[in-house]
Amino acid sequence: MVRTLGWLSAAALALGLVMAFGVAPREVSQGNVQRIMYVHPPLAWVAYLAFGVVAAASIAYLVRRAPGADRLAHASAEVGVLFTGLAIATGSIWGKPTWGVWWTWDARLTLTAILLLIFAGYLMLRRLTEDENRAASSAAVLGIIGFLDIPLIHMSVYWWRTLHQPPSILRPDKAPWENIAWPLLIPLLLNLAAFLFLYFYLLSLRFRLGEITAEIKALKLSRDF
Known about the structure:
Blueprint: H1 2-23, H2 40-64, H3 67-99, H4 107-128, H5 132-147, H6 149-159, H7 176-179, H8 182-224
Helix pairs in contact: 1-8, 2-3, 2-5, 2-8, 3-4, 3-8, 4-5, 4-6
């Protein structure tokens, strides 16, 4: 199953990038730099999904104290940090020719940076706390709190005056195909599917690593006794 996800990820990424950078038409106002749109929003959306999984698994852990839920939250947080970092990097590449700067303290950018710092802190908290149960409980609370930043990120372009454009896809008043032409929408959705496959592939690998680590620790404890 994991190997299949890996091959699906590779094939979907290859197809999505070919569609984005070779097939999709050149956008009139921004030119070729607009092609980053096929990568940047999907990275951000999958990061949101990853942190949503962290929040859900953290709630499950706090309610049931299930080690599997904690391992799932930990694994998804690591992948989410990766995707968030890539989203910020690709956004900066898009922002330089569009806004004239690599970074500006725009509301959405600032809140996204805060999201990255929260979950980087989540990972550090797990590593630095020696008591595993305490680390899992504290991280679960932080993971739930951190997820609350995501609605703020989404609504920031409505609540404050920002350089960042309003959402083109995730809008309550219009369907995606009403706001963006199909030749642009199809490569975007293909890349979203590709990054979803990649997320679940990396999540599966990291979750399995967590299981193996737990098995090794249990074996060492049994040998000590």
